[in-house]
Structure formats: C-alpha cells, structure tokens
Write a structure and sequence with these properties.
With 440 residues, this protein is α/β, with parallel strands linked by helices. The protein has 3 domains: 135 residues, NusB-like (N-utilizing Substance Protein B Homolog, Chain A, Orthogonal Bundle), CATH 1.10.940.10; 58 residues, Sun protein, domain 3 (Alpha-Beta Plaits, 2-Layer Sandwich); 202 residues, Rossmann fold (3-Layer(aba) Sandwich). The chain is built from 17 helices and 12 strands. The strands form 2 sheets. Strands 5, 6, 7, 8, 9, 10, 11 and 12 form an 8-stranded mixed sheet that branches. Strands 2-3-1-4 form a 4-stranded antiparallel sheet, covered by helices on one side. Helix 1 runs antiparallel to helix 2 and helix 5 runs antiparallel to helix 6. The longest helix is centred in the first third of the chain and has 20 residues. One of its GO terms (biological process) is regulation of DNA-templated transcription. It is an enzyme of class 2 (transferase). It comes from Colwellia demingiae. It holds the Pfam family Methyltr_RsmB-F.
C-alpha cells in the first residue's frame, strides 16, 4: 500500500502540538517509513505547518462549524496540512486537495473524507474571492496570527528589542541556511572552500571570525567532500564561535558542560588537538550517543560522562583550565531550525530555566581553576537568560572578571555584558556568549 505523506504529516504535527513531543523526535519516526525525496517533502510540510500554525488555525476555524476533538483530533491537523500546501507550497491545488483527502483512508476514517474535501475546496474559494477584491480593507489581525508566534513571546521580544523585534520574528520564519565547520586537522577553511568550488557546491558566505562556511543551498551531507572522513561537519555559524572564544591552549584541562550533541566538544579538540584532556558531560544518557557518534566520525577522543552539571557527584576533584557551559535554555534563538519551540515552550518555563542556569553556573564555577576561563553560552535571545543572568553572577561573586568579546563589529556596544547574536545577524542563529575570568 502506498504511504500517504499528508497522513504522516498530520500525525507528526498532532504529536507535537497536542501531545507536547519534540519535532526532532517525531519527524524521524515518520521519515523512516519513506524513501528518497518523500522524506524531504514530509519535513517541509511539518516544518511549514509549525511555522505558520496560528495563521493556518485561523484559516481552518473560519471554515469548520465546530472544532474537531477527541479521537478525530488528528484530522484537524490534516486540514492544517492541506491549507498549508495550498497557501505556501508550489503543489498544484488539485493535487494538494486530492492527496490530503486521500489521507483520510490512511488514517482509517472515510467518514472524514467529505469534511476534509469541503473545507479545502472552501478555502480555495476564499482565496479566489480575496484575489478579486479591488478595495481590500485592512483588517486588524491579532499579533499571534500576524507574526505566527505566541503572544507571550512577542511581548518579551518587543520589550527586549524595541527597534528589532519585527526583524527577529521575521528571521524566525525563514528557512535556516546550512553552515559548515571545517576540521582544521585536515584542511584550512580556504582549502575546503576550493574543494566545494571543485564539487560545484555554491558558497553563500564565509563568517570572518570563525571562517564558518554558509552554503547557498542545503544539501545531503553525503555530497560534501570528505564528510565520512571527518573533513567537515554541519554546525551553525553562531555555534562555531564557542571554540574560538574559549581559546583553549596546549595542555589545558577542558570541560564541556551540557555537551550533547557534541559539536562544540569536537570543534574545541579539532582547533586545539594538544589540550591535556577533554571531558564532556550531559544529564541525558540517550543524547550522549550523538556525542560518541560525532567523536568517532572525526576520530577524536574525549571522556564522555552522563552527569548533572548542577552537582559534583561525577567530578574527580581536578579543576579545569577552561570550561564551556552551554547552558540549558529556552532555545528561542534557534526557532527557525526548530519551529516547534514556539509551541512547546511556555511563558512560565523561562523563570524555571533561569533558576536552573543559576544553579549550574554557581556549581561549575567552583570547578574552574583560579586564572581559568569559563565561557557561558545559550541559544536564547531572552535577556533574563543571558546578560541579566551574567550580571547577577558577577554581582554575587567577587572572583569574577568579565572579559570583553571582540566580534569585529563596529556597531557592538563596548559596555555590553557579553555578546548577543540575533537570528537575523549574518544569517546565523540567535546565540549569547559571555566570557568570564576567575581571579586568583
């Protein structure tokens, strides 16, 4: 029997929105049922529905007499899948409607066929009528629908970035670029750029600080020169700043906290192979599988431990010269890569995360040698997790000195506490870094 991609998309979106599951967990389960380009089509539909969820919900609500609940709830998401295809994809309208209607059979409920067909055809008539309107009136659209973000998040971004909030929300709606990290043990960035040109892979941008490479179009990693041999890895340009800023030296004893999936761990070792040791810890044992996989592909070695960074239960007693604390955070800087964050994260989660970050930061600081460096990092754009968090830490500890970060940007505020990257800057993810010296 032919597998219906729209049915899989509806199941996936239902699992994320109604059951609170991660798209990163659910999507691969459904993709495993497909082959070739169908995997990509499923991903595009799921990501699209989650990017434009409020807008799609609004479209459907105007065409359905009463909400679909209970055991039939998955068909609500099937309608969202259908409307997304019509509104945003290049799939012909008749194909979008017919394939979505056909999904009712795959979802084992032919009774819903008539409803799905009627709603999607009704939506087509609505779009046609709107296109014929000569004098379109400007309707007041609520911000969550207009910007496709939850209201609480929009307010936080408006408060924190009064001049940039719309640009941040817009950046979150874009498809993310594919960034490459070149393994310096094999090639320089310039040498690998030449290999990409030879392979006819177009380069869009090279980030000057880290020499990270952004491709013009994402592609299968199998097409990257030397990927299986460890010549290159996929990692966003913002995340690649971590190894550069930590600036490990030969014979340093290094700790990477909350290390999974291990991209920064590997980058640090690639950049400074003669460090004395690398310890990578993460509280979730399952996530450390990715760390081991990355280390193995790159032929690198680290001491990988399942451990809670908020405790010392795992610690041998030897203090570290350099510590990277990639703290648990809201993930609000990587929404374009993980659109489900908008709907899985709740307003009251932020205060809980801030408390957890404080606990980890206070604990890990005691593991740092006097004269050592700690790099605090998050993939968040919220000040309470970033500059406000570091301000609190500096105020409460006498042995901390903030080290200015040189990002070679003339617009950078010299008095800023740390370095906040926003998701529209140089087409990188939203990220925050603060570099702290432990005074002797």
């Amino acid at each position: 029997m032919t597998i219906n991609i729209r049915a899989l998309a509806a199941k996936c979106c239902y699992a994320v929105i109604d059951q609170g599951r991660s798209l990163s967990d659910e999507l691969p389960k459904q993709q495993d049922k497909l082959i070739g380009k169908d995997k990509g089509l499923l991903q595009e539909i799921c990501y699209g529905v989650l990017r434009y969820l409020p807008e799609l919900e609004n479209d459907v609500s105007q065409l359905v007499q009463k909400p679909i609940k209970g055991k039939q709830r998955v068909f609500h998401f099937l309608l969202l899948v259908g409307v997304y295809q019509i509104r945003y994809m290049r799939i012909p309208d008749h194909a979008a409607v017919s394939e979505t209607v056909a999904a009712t059979k795959t979802l084992k409920n032919d009774h819903m066929k008539g409803l799905v067909n009627a709603v999607l055809r009704g939506f087509l008539r609505t779009l046609e009528a709107e296109s014929k309107q000569e004098n379109k009136t400007d309707k007041k659209i609520p911000d969550p629908i207009k910007y496709n973000h939850p209201g609480w998040f929009i307010k936080k971004i408006q408060q924190a970035y009064s001049d940039q909030w719309q640009a941040i929300l817009d950046a979150n709606q874009q498809k993310p670029p594919m960034w490459l990290r070149v393994n310096q043990q094999h090639h320089t960035s310039e040498q690998y750029q030449a290999l990409l040109v030879e392979a006819e892979i177009e380069i869009a941008h090279v980030e000057p600080n880290s020499q990270a490479i952004a491709l013009a179009k994402p592609l299968d990693v199998a097409k990257l020169p030397g990927f299986d041999d460890g010549w290159v890895s996929v990692q966003d340009g913002a995340a690649q700043q971590a190894a550069r800023l930590l600036d490990c030296q030969p014979n340093d004893v290094v700790l990477d906290c909350c290390a999974a999936p291990g991209g920064k761990t590997c980058h640090i070792i690639e950049q400074t192979p003669d460090i004395a040791s690398m310890t990578a810890i993460d509280i979730e044992e399952g996530r450390l599988t990715r760390v081991h996989e990355n280390l193995d592909r790159l032929n690198l070695t680290a001491n990988v431990i399942t451990a809670d960074a908020a405790t010392k239960d795992w610690w041998s007693g030897e203090q570290f010269d350099r510590i990277l604390l990639d703290a648990p955070c809201s993930g609000t800087g990587v929404i374009r890569r993980h659109p489900d964050i908008k709907w899985l994260r709740k307003a009251d989660d932020i205060d809980k995360l801030v408390v957890l970050q404080q606990q980890i930061l206070d604990n890990i600081w005691s593991l740092l040698k006097p004269g050592g460096t700690l790099l605090y990092a998050t993939c968040s754009v919220l000040p309470e997790e970033n500059c406000q968090q570091i301000s609190r830490f500096i105020e409460q500890n006498q042995d901390v000195q903030l080290i200015a970060i040189n990002c070679n940007n003339p617009d950078t505020d010299e008095n800023a506490i740390g370095w906040q990257l926003l998701p529209d800057a140089e087409n990188m993810d939203g990220f925050y870094y603060a570099k702290l010296l432990k005074l002797k």
